[in-house]
Amino acid sequence: MIEDQELLDKTIKRSLEEDIGPGDITTDAVIALSATGKAVLETREDIVLAGLPVFMRTFTLIDPDISFETFYEDGQEVSAGNVICNISGSMSAILKAERTALNFIQRMSGIATLTREYVLMASSEKVKILDTRKTVPGLRFLDKYSVTMGGGQNHRFGLYDAVLIKDNHIAAAGSITNAVKSVKDRTPVEIKVEVEVENLDDVREAIDAGADSVLLDNMTSDEMKKAVEFIKGRVLVEASGRINLDNVREIAETGVDFISIGALTHSVKAVDLSLEVKHELGLKES
């Protein structure tokens, strides 16, 4: 469930304004304002659905009287050829909202579908698939929601809600030890500290400095196994970097707790959904 309705409405309105601008000159010229009808949203490929509430809200922000008959919910798998929902109401409003609504749900379902692939390929009850901050600016809350619909989990939402000491922080601080100490001295004790590490020496230093978790960055599977064996459960372990569907199971088998994958949101392919009008249009009289 997308909890921040105010943010959602603001995001959709901005997107509608971007597309419609001062008016849809094609629809306004062709379709009678009084014309009503029905359309269907269907999928042309197997998907994990995400973004149906966003899709529907896009229409009702143009016309609150538009109604829907839904057959699936977010998080469900939908096979190619199935109708996801019926849409009824003002034909003018349906046509004006169509592209923006599809843009949202196609991307969101693409993220959920890809996430589900990674979750299934990892084939592990222990390891959790995480997203990253590599999201479309302004759409992070939708991107991360979509990951959860695919069975993944959210990493930090932004720079404000978790500590992750990365390589550039370490370079600026002079060492992992200095960076961790600075964080511990300046943040509440309940804030967990994660440190990005590149080798076993970094792992050892991060643990000795008091890190709560380590992110194994761009390590090979063999290096990850050695790191997990050295750590022996003392801190949580996250793997990141160069991870794809071909190697995610191998990485899961190293014993890490989390696998973070930027591709879930930064390289996602929109799924193939279509909106088809199933009613003879009410044309304007010439």
3D architecture notes:
The protein is an alpha/beta fold. Helix content is 42%, strand content 19%. The protein contains 11 helices and 12 strands. The chain has helices spanning 5-20, 25-30, 52-60, 91-122, 140-149, 167-173, 176-186, 200-209, 221-231, 248-252, 263-266; strands at residues 36-43, 47-48, 67-70, 77-78, 83-90, 128-130, 163-165, 193-197, 213-217, 236-240, 258-260, 273-277.
Secondary structure blueprint with pairings:
Elements: H1 5-20, H2 25-30, E1 36-43, E2 47-48, H3 52-60, E3 67-70, E4 77-78, E5 83-90, H4 91-122, E6 128-130, H5 140-149, E7 163-165, H6 167-173, H7 176-186, E8 193-197, H8 200-209, E9 213-217, H9 221-231, E10 236-240, H10 248-252, E11 258-260, H11 263-266, E12 273-277
Parallel strand pairs: 6-11, 7-8, 8-9, 9-10, 10-11
Antiparallel strand pairs: 1-5, 1-12, 2-4, 3-5
Helix pairs in contact: 1-4, 3-4, 4-5, 7-8, 8-9
List keywords for this structure.
single chain; 286 residues; alpha/beta; Aldehyde Oxidoreductase, domain 3; TIM Barrel; 2 domains; 6-stranded parallel β-sheet; 4-stranded antiparallel β-sheet; 11 helices
Biggest sheet features: 6 strands, parallel
Task: Please identify the top-level CATH class of the largest domain.
Answer: Alpha Beta
The CATH homologous superfamily of the largest domain is named Aldolase class I
Share in helix: 40-55%
Share in β-strands = 15-25%
Look at the helices and sheets and give the structural class.
alpha/beta
Distance between the termini: 46 Å
Q: Strands of the largest sheet, in order across it?
A: 6-11-10-9-8-7
The low-confidence runs, each spanning 5 or more residues with pLDDT under 50, are none
Report the radius of gyration as a whole number of Å: 23 Å
| Shape-level CATH architecture of the largest domain | Alpha-Beta Barrel
Give the tally of β-strands: 12
Molecular shape: elongated
